[in-house]
Amino acid sequence: MSESGKKILLAAPRGYCAGVDRAVEAVERALDLYGAPVYVRKEIVHNKFVVQSLAKKGAIFVDQTDEVPEGARVVFSAHGVSPAVHQEAAERSLLPIDATCPLVTKVHREAVRFAKEDYDIVLVGHPGHEEVEGTYGHAPERIQIVANPDEVDKVEVRDPDKVIWLSQTTLSVDEAMETVRRLRERFPNLNDPPSDDICYATQNRQGAVKVMAPKCDMMIVVGSGNSSNSVRLLEVALENGAKDGHRVDGADELEIEWFEGVKTVGVTSGASVPEILVREVLQWLSDHGYQDVETVVTKEEKITFSLPKNLRADLKAAGEVEVHADRNFKNLNHQSE
């Protein structure tokens, strides 16, 4: 340990998940293959740095499908979209690249399946979040959205024996399970999804924070304010013993006053955060006396996802090789160095 007694606990895993890596690479490869501009509906992932960096390379981000010129190429974000959005794209003769995370697509398929089987579906998630809007759009006549345990009493179903819950993939595991517990109190025969909806990366990052939090005077979570999983990480840290904590987009938001009397700082990052932003935070901390870094490893992640099918086909036809997984945002990192 440094002479000052100051140290950093660095979470592993942290940062990019396989779905984010796939989505960002999809935009990068589309720009390389087709040339700029490539339109992107909503933020490809919820991170300011990523969005700004891709915009500099020629991506144009829009809020709605009707903002994309007819016949243009458009990428759908990792959070997924409803069938209505696909229909709008078809009506405008757009060329879509669907970068929806496969784990979100799984939830979409579950919603469609259980709606066809005439279940009432309780979707645990945050109203207005793009992922929740996309999932809801697959079965609006059967889905009710519940944001937290306190909203469970508002749920109304046709048959209490034919109810199933699904979940936004980026929730706090503990809060989601408390909501499910409350649901089961009301509906004892509540059905569970065929497999866990909260994604592996969300669970793994929260698990690492739970291990670190009791040892931390301060927890720094790198991630944007509209990133659900990043916001949840800070909540999990404070709920599990961290004395204080802050979420920042990057090192330039750190304030020296936060660290008065702080010996041990925990550092982690949300699933849409490139590693360069974490490295810049570590450098800032090192410059302020936190030079002893201990990596806290709680899980190893080896999951990768292939690029969207139509993009893969066009890359193959052009003689390009698909490259994905563990890129750590190399292209954008290089631009920022």
From TrEMBL:
Cofactor(s) annotated in UniProt? [4Fe-4S] cluster
Q: Which domain of life is it from?
A: Bacteria
Cofactor annotation comment:
Binds 1 [4Fe-4S] cluster per subunit.
UniProt-annotated catalytic positions: 131
List the EC numbers from the record.
Answer: 1.17.7.4
Asked if the record carries the keyword Metal-binding, the reply is yes
Classification via Pfam families:
LYTB (PF02401)
Name of the top EC class for this enzyme: oxidoreductase
Known role: Catalyzes the conversion of 1-hydroxy-2-methyl-2-(E)-butenyl 4-diphosphate (HMBPP) into a mixture of isopentenyl diphosphate (IPP) and dimethylallyl diphosphate (DMAPP). Acts in the terminal step of the DOXP/MEP pathway for isoprenoid precursor biosynthesis.
Can you name this protein? 4-hydroxy-3-methylbut-2-enyl diphosphate reductase
Supply the source organism for this entry: Boudabousia liubingyangii
Q: What gene does this protein come from? A: ispH
